Amino acid sequence: MPADPDRLIAGLQPVREAIRVHGGKLGRVLVDDRALPRLDAVARFARDQGAAVERVARRELDRLAGGAQHQGVLAFAPPLSLVPADELWADPGLLGVALDGIQDPQNFGAVIRSAVGIAGATVVWGEHASAPLGPATFRASAGAIEHARLCRVRSLTTALGEARDHGVHVVGLDAHAEHHLAEVDLTQPTLLVIGSEGEGMGRAVRRVCSSLAQVLPMTRLDSLNASVAAGIALYEAIRQRSR
Question: Which domain holds residue 43?
Fold first, then answer.
């Protein structure tokens, strides 16, 4: 299932990663026409990978970026491919993070970066009350989104219930839970549910979880940034699975 078409990617690292992954399948790579070594290097790399490159004025990049920080480079990439939920629930080795109410593109992109970089984990989110798949999210992921396994569902609560019915262990991360994550079996098919920093998990999402667990024993603070929580939780899952 494709995501939104005509993906605009902005920023040096996200564009480099898009070039590395898609090469000649990119629609265009637009590079600031100023003679700067970092920009010349991106243009050369894109051409070497078979992508069409245009050198354009900075004001044209500003116009196309629509406020996104582009660092002198933009690319038009193929649509992201989204995995159907039922395909995930049938995966015996499933490890994923489910995002409940993560509306900040910086947090959303950073979670994707952690998921890909630490565990090659799937990212699941509801189509409502979530950050969009746009240039800010792509940039925050530092290009990791080009490698990510993504699943967007209509209702996160319903999807988590279906996952649980299919034998997936749905673990809600909660700073006030009785058990620590290290005490929870993460070797089975698992989804780690992460709520927003401000509100945490919604009540309906919390109720549908198989279990709740603290990421770490907290001292002076009672919450972690979403991407930090995701990174620690995924590392624990990988640690258990590597035994």
Answer: 7-77
- Total tally of structural domains belonging to the chain: 2
224: pLDDT strictly greater than 90? no
Same domain, 91 and 107: yes
pLDDT digits (tens, 9 = 90+) for 143-182: 999 999 999 999 999 999 999 999 999 999 998 899 999 9
DSSP per residue, the chain: -B-SSSEEEESHHHHHHHHHHHGGGSSEEEEE-S--HHHHHHHHHHHHTT--EEEE-HHHHHHHHTT---TTEEEEEPPPBBPPHHHHHT-TT-EEEEEES---HHHHHHHHHHIIIII--EEEEESSSS--SSHHHHHHTTTGGGG-EEEEES-HHHHHHHHHHTT-EEEEE-TT-SSBGGGS--SSSEEEEEEBTTTBS-HHHHHH-SEEEBSS--SS-S---HHHHHHHHHHHHHHHHT-
Give the predicted TM-score (pTM) of the model.
0.91
**Of the residues 77, 104, 125, which one is the last residue of a structural domain?**
77
CB 129, CB 101: distance < 8 Å: yes
Q: C-alpha 73: how far from its chain's center?
A: 21
Tell me the per-residue pLDDT of 20-67, one tens digit each, with 9 for 90 and over: 999 999 989 999 999 999 999 999 999 999 999 999 999 999 999 999
Q: Are 199 and 128 part of one and the same domain?
A: yes
19, 51, 77 — which closes off a domain?
77
